[in-house]
């Protein structure tokens, strides 16, 4: 048996009602997204247009809940993703409240920022300015090179011998590691993971090859390349640093030419004219 045919006037009225219902639902989602309306107030709303609204659509309008998290909530509460607002029972509402409480109390993971660039460009000077900023955690690399005057083991680097470093490689303890200027450098994986889980923005100050490894293994990492204002400025900084032999300085300059060509591989480039400005740019990139 065919359904009765609607008159032109009835079809027009039905179409107008459907438009108004969509407008109601769109406005509600905007109000929930802006915080003007509380998610759980909608379960008391007596409008038919809201009662017919899909719970999935409403959930995804809540700040911090995207499609993936909404799907996880449905799985944990055993609520059907096709359920509409008017069909959600009291027990299910309580389960949703528990999920919202978990979201509120869960710690947001930090960002992984990789800072790289040629020797002498000022990477350490920039990152060291953020050591006292509670929003950041500066990773301490492990290295086989000799400790320099003024450096502190465990603060500037973790200094180990060749055998110990190689054992750490075998034990898969590094997020990345690389040879540079005759020594090995590596980032301890466990410490980085713990800092990220604790909500810290983690900064890795590492060489180009290490940055490439992180890019390959950590798709969410933000890669930032520090450039000198000019080649002449970089040369002067390396020579005036006085921590390297003439041969080592020249080797670093030769490598710097190659590293500068790799800037296009990074997400952002910061030109280190002034340390304070570069630090501010780094903070801005982390918190955006």
From TrEMBL:
Its EC number is 2.7.4.8. Gene3D superfamilies: 1.10.8.50, Guanylate Kinase phosphate binding domain, P-loop containing nucleotide triphosphate hydrolases. SMART domains: GuKc (SM00072). Pfam families: Guanylate_kin (PF00625), H2TH_5 (PF22525). Signal peptide: none annotated. It is an enzyme of class 2 (transferase). GO terms for molecular function: ATP binding; GMP kinase activity; nucleic acid binding. Residues 110-287 form the Guanylate kinase-like domain. Keywords: ATP-binding, Kinase, Nucleotide-binding, Transferase. One of its GO terms (cellular component) is cytosol. InterPro entries: GK/Ca_channel_bsu, Guanylate_kin-like_dom, Guanylate_kinase, Guanylate_kinase_CS, IHF-like_H2TH, IHF_actinobact, P-loop_NTPase, Ribosomal_uS13-like_H2TH. NCBIfam families: actino_IHF, guanyl_kin. Belongs to the guanylate kinase family. This is guanylate kinase. It comes from freshwater metagenome. The lineage of its organism: unclassified sequences, metagenomes, ecological metagenomes.
